[in-house]
Amino acid sequence: MTQEYKITLKPVYSQTIPTPDGVKLPKHWSLSWHQLATLEALRNPDIEVVFNTAMTGDGKSLAAYLEVLQGEFSAIGLYPTNELARDQETQIRGYIEQFQPEDEPRVVRLSGADLENYAENEGLKKAAAISTLTSQREVLLTNPDIFHYLHRGAYIIHGDSPDKLWGRIDKDFDLFIFDEFHVFAAPQIASVINTMLLIRCTNRRKKFLFLSATPDTNLISRLEQAGFRCQVINPVAQNKYQFPETEEEGKQLQTKGWRQIARIISLNFIPLEPAFKASETWLKENSDLILAQFQKYPGSKGAIILNSIAAVKRLTVFFQEIFKPYQLTIGENTGLSGKSIKEQSLMADLVIGTSTIDVGVDFKINFLIFESSDAGNFIQRLGRLGRHEGYEKDGQIIKFEKFTAFALVPNFLVERLFQVDSPPLEVNSIYERPFFHDVISEKYRQINDFRGYYRRWAFVQSFRLYYKLSDRTIKQQYAQSREQFQKACEDVFESKLKSIAGRVSGWAKDWKALSGKPGNPIADDAASFRGSSPLQCGLYDLTEENAADRFKTYDLPGILGNLEIEMWTEAGFIRTLKETAQRTGQPIAKGRFAHCLAFMKLRSYREERLNWKFTYPGDLQPIADAWKVQVLTGVEIWQPDNQWIGAINKRLKKEGLVCYVIRRPVSEVRMRLRLPMHFQIYPISDQYSFHDVSAPYAIAFGHSALLLDTLAYTFKSTGDEIWVV
What we know:
By secondary structure, the protein is an alpha/beta fold.
């Protein structure tokens, strides 16, 4: 290794407080300041929305469910990943066991796959399945996607009143909890605002709680603009954290009622060239360093968090061979990992994964290596380390000796942190977490927050909800609520219902003229939670040992670059799925494969990423000159030496793709507009630029197209001169 860039992060202690009257806790328990402050805010009739910004590891989950554990109170917890919901279910059941409330809260967890399997096994429609699963429950754990579509009438059938599900569920539950909300972008935030407005206009006295160490200022300001009475619980601002210099100072704080929530961390910055496989290469070249951690500190548990699924897959095999002689186990946890592999991975000595393990899952490690794509991502992933003193194994407590992290970062970040005049950080120095987080936020890449989305696109969701409130079955019942909802949405999103109605009608006419079919793909995308996935394919993963876990979905761009595949028929895929379900006795939700572009067998993961691009048979210039979201047909793929391209293109060119085309190379658009890492934007050539070395156009799909629409004006030009607003 070359020059080291190492700093130390001080431990963190959170202030606890005496238990007040009216709050029941298990013996020898005490609440952190923020936990009681959250409880008091939720009990305050003048507060509707609470934001808890406590640091990672300080018990925000207990703060969320404390009122449920006290008595007659019910809550819906909304989690961005199914892994996090599963982790939270374990925590909540543990709280119930420890608190022993007189009326034990009944808990149910509901994912899309759970819902589909339950409905199929019980012979129920999805609406009936949701009603059965959620009735007479005090805690419902699900994801914001289901919550969104439940309020949009996705699970009911024609003729049902639009409020058939949400009318009861919104009344039955007192509190709506949104966890790790900072991971969502503008379309999801808009959805939550719209749903909250619907709930407030059709119900009364409901509470909303957001848990995030980095709350979205757009969300808070817009909720206040809508008239919600908000309160932010911020322990940092209230000096409720202490950062002792020495172990003795820490012991003194504990005697005064401060609880340790994060351990001292040795953080090493590893500067890397911004090249494909740079992190993977470093990890392979420094495998001895990683193995030495487990040999020097027996009982260690570690995690490697990367951005690429393919890299994780390759590295899992690589490290399994290295660790096997030492009886050390390797786990894998990615979006393409089977359910059983994900669950087992957190028990391994070293887990290698992607974002599936960096969003809130509470696993116990003392060694961490991680990539990151921006400031928020960096802070989020580092927060996985130092939360626990040790773990239990075979009835014994194994205590960690030391907490070490390696941050694999672009070399420009190391220059900004350590090598400029008056650098914000100095090698071998010691820092407090809030200061360090501020430095990272200032010096690392900040992604675009797309604040223009709310005014331009969020009201499409509002329009759809307003339209459903006008349904003949509930029109009279919700007459006043509908007027209140319209006014609130117009205030928050600074748009008028009539203007949005005209735009929606225009998109429908354009689509009818293009395809000859009824429908409205642009409005459908704008009204969805995560956007459509027109490039999603069904995968039968031959690398997966568990047969029931072989059925997966993945986007075509990721497949083209990283996977070795074989084309398959939809009939063959579905037939094998049904046979596997019967043979294994494990239900496999088939609904998620209903709209796949193509079906393939996944044979292996490529060592090197392959080049490819989209192509268009006509002239893209007039399409780009329109500067608007459009539906495009005829798009195909170009990739040399791929025998399956013809079969893929046969399907792809028939698709109507919601897109935005801009005449700039992808790399320039990404850099200039500070786009997120997984933003769906790709290179595309037309008939005039097909043979160009690099594609002169960029194309974005789905939600990414809508988001790009709010920023693309910065590329408008007069002649060749670019002007920026």
